[in-house]
Amino acid sequence: MAPSSSRPMRHHHLYLLLIVVSVSVLLTSVPASAADELPELGGDGLHKEILRDETVLRLKELGKISDGEGYLERTFLSPASIRATAVIVSWMKDAGLITWVDQMGNIHGRFEPANSTQEALLMGSHMDTVIDAGMYDGSLGIICAISALKVLKVTGKLQRLTRPVEVIAFSDEEGVRFQTTFLGSAAVAGTLPESILQVSDKSGTTVQDVLKMNSFEATAAAISQVSYNPESVGSYVEIHMEQGPVLEALRYPLGVVKGIAGQTRLKVIVDGSQGHAGTVPMKLRRDPMVAAAELVVTLERLCKEPNKLLTYDEECGCFTEESLAGLVCTVGELLTWPSASNVIPGQVNFTVDIRAMDDKVRETIVTSFSRLVLQRCDDRLVDCKVEHKHSAPATPSDPELTSQLKRAARSAVSAMAGRAAETPVLMSGAGHDAMAMAKLTKMGMVFVRCRGGVSHSPEESVMDDDVWAAGLALVNFIEQAAVSSELLLPEAEPDAVVADL
């Protein structure tokens, strides 16, 4: 890959400056000692060899297992995925866990205390990647959890667990191959439909075909056996890189997630009159490209300034600044036909992705945009249709679990930095396996700071000491939740920073 030019770097610094300015109001509520940047995290006696050094080496090792030449790509049950499975299994065994691979390719590593009847603590993330991926997305949550349990093993605390603990490396979260997300975690949660077996990839290969190729049973009955009984599971916890710039702007290594935004995906189809670019007068054109461009700008304005475009009937007056926080809308794909420079297009299709923590806000934006599409298209004498492709409600984190994770994270960062530090609370605009697992049990998440908020890119970067902090926080949490019935961390905590950008 060619080195970046100086121009993108200047844009990067400007972007971070804007983010810092935008969250400055949040920092006014933070004591000066906490708002200052934490010193370089260091120190001894905090399991650095396992939680930082070994974890980082394993992240790099897993990041080299790829189906692509010169870039990272590891999709559902691909050859690289199978190779990665063997490596992850070996790491789980090294941590003292019993391992198995279920009928959807999920990798499990579990420790079952003797005579334990309590509900299990599940941890993990996904092992699949996007195309041309970075090495932290998904993998960080798997390896941090394995490392935390290895620390308990070497310190003799694994045998003192009072409830089962399990790490799961989910086989598919990104949905790259079959364009349907959460194949792995939805199967565990018991929400994966039988019809998934007949979904095909671009080559016409179905999920059932791929399962059979890898010696899985590939039947509806086998998939149903993957699901867990909700009564056997107490909670699910996921470590994940933030995939956004807030923690970097706030200068904190870790944050806890208060919830995952709901999401709606639309496809807008605009039909006009195809014609010669040089012979059709401007006043006689029914150009779907111009109409589509106007609709994209309309969507941007609707999501930037919703109260200016929403009508009274859509109850815009009920939306507070808090409910509108985190609303984002994206047009990520635009296709034209016949897509020639000297032809007025006959049809333009584009995708719309709308996300918000408040489901009522998201649903109102969808309704309002659909109405505006019909109005704008009618004005331009083109035909338009809005198709609903996907919808998922917002997923709140469990408050008690979030509180425990806040204490664990604060304890870890404070121990490493040598002084007390608060724990920011964020929302997640991206979907995660925790979203699917929340249908099975209560869930909580910890975000880890990443450079520039860059994700789904080989430029993903998480500082080694932040990896260490995440692992130590998970050790603290497991000790609090599963080693003893008494909380091992102090009850009192300062008010947390709430970041809803």
Automatic annotation (TrEMBL):
Enzyme's top EC category: hydrolase
Xref: Pfam families: M20_dimer, Peptidase_M20
Keyword Zinc (UniProt): no
InterPro entries documented for this protein: Amidase_Cbmase, ArgE/DapE_CS, Bact_exopeptidase_dim_dom, Peptidase_M20, Peptidase_M20_dimer
Domain of life per record: Eukaryota
Domain Peptidase M20 dimerisation: 262-373
GO cellular component, one term: endoplasmic reticulum
EC number: 3.5.3.9
Cofactor: Mn(2+)
MF annotations from Gene Ontology: allantoate deiminase activity; metal ion binding
Localization: Endoplasmic reticulum
Transmembrane segments annotated in the record for this chain: none
Residue ranges that the Swiss-Prot or TrEMBL entry lists as coiled coil: none
Gene Ontology BP terms: purine nucleobase metabolic process
Signal peptide: 1-34
Catalytic reactions of this protein: allantoate + H2O + 2 H(+) = (S)-2-ureidoglycine + NH4(+) + CO2
Alphabetical keyword list: Endoplasmic reticulum, Hydrolase, Manganese, Metal-binding, Purine metabolism, Signal
Subunit structure and binding partners: Homodimer.
Family to which the UniProt record says this protein belongs: Belongs to the peptidase M20A family.
Protein name per the record: allantoate deiminase
Organism: Urochloa decumbens
Species classification: Eukaryota, Viridiplantae, Streptophyta, Embryophyta, Tracheophyta
